[in-house]
Amino acid sequence: MKNISRLNASARVLALIGAVILQAPTALAGPSENYVALGDSFAAGNGTSNPDLDYNCFRSSDAYAPIIAVERPDTKLTFVACSGATSEDVINSQVDALSSRTDYVTVSMGGNDVGFSELISNCVGHFDEAKCLETAEEVNRRIDEELPAKLDAAYAAIKNAAEKAVIMHVGYPRFFGDNVWCWQADGTTENEAFALNGVADNLDRVIANRAGAAGVTHISVIQQFTGHDVCAWEPYLHGKDGLYLRDFYHPKKAGYRDGFAPLIRAIMG
Q1: Known catalytic residue: 250?
Q2: What is the CATH number of the domain that holds 105?
Q3: For the packed helices 147-161 and 190-214, what is the interaxial angle rounded to 10 degrees?
Q4: In whole angstroms, what separates CA 265 from the centre of its chain?
């Protein structure tokens, strides 16, 4: 009887060992969700003063995508956003990072298509209000007449490459509040600030419209950044400050962490 008991005990031990061995691959299987971050400087991390992942593209570990990947340890991040990218660049150079295994996609695009750098240089780099307002009018024309088709093409390419993914277009903030009397906004008049905020609103409107038509989730960040403009007590945005010239008029680290990331996490969980 003692031998039989010992045999039964040994069998139970072997069964437990077998169960552990069978369960081990599941525990070591690795990330269960794939997240791909596409887009321009507002996704890459300009404004963080920390292009530690890729200097040429200014990709930063302080941008929202790496922050989210750290917060969601079961998520594998592929980070291909690049400073200066247009919607055409997203199609030609970034969509290849997507596949049928992609679960989540974020993209920031549209600003470079309509002349973001031209707008900034003419409105905050010179003391010529008429030139700024003229540039803002031209940028609004491009937003209304040229951008919709470009967004449609980019959405189609993204959806074709990642047909099962949740796709999110992350929008752009306003840079100015009621007060423009700070060093970071030096040289920007109230009329110019109003015009620039109007461009941000128009861009947000068109992105929301085209994203909705394509079945893409539009994440407006305007409300989230309100009260955190370049002259605010706790700014999420750079004005004429930053370690690098490419930081100017881009989100600070706090903007990526407390502005963008929570809105994306609200969808991704």
Answers
A1: yes
A2: 3.40.50.1110
A3: 40
A4: 12
- Answer yes or no: do 73 and 15 share one domain: no
Q: What does each of the 269 residues of the chain score in pLDDT, given as a tens digit?
A: 444 444 344 444 444 434 333 343 434 445 589 999 999 999 999 999 999 999 999 999 999 999 999 999 999 999 999 999 999 999 999 999 999 999 999 999 999 999 998 998 888 766 789 999 999 999 999 999 999 999 999 999 999 999 999 999 999 999 999 989 898 887 789 999 999 999 999 999 999 999 999 999 999 999 999 999 999 999 999 987 766 677 889 999 999 999 999 999 999 99
Looking at the fold, whether 19 and 84 belong to one and the same domain comes out as: no
- Residues 45, 15 within the same domain: no
Instruction: For residue 78, give its domain range.
Output: 31-268
Number of domains in the chain: 2
Q: Do residues 56 and 166 share a domain?
A: yes
> What is the pTM assigned to this prediction?
0.86
- CA separation for the pair 88, 144 (Å, rounded): 18
Does one domain contain both 157 and 54? Answer: yes
| Together in a domain, 133 and 15 | no
Q: Are residues 189 and 234 in the same domain?
A: yes
The one catalytic residue among 169, 228, 238, 250: 250
**41 carries an active-site annotation:** yes
% helix, strand, coil for the chain, step of 5: 55, 10, 35
Of the residues 32, 41, 83, 238, only one is catalytic, namely 41
101, 110, 146, 211, 245 from 237: Cα distances, Å: 34, 19, 27, 25, 14
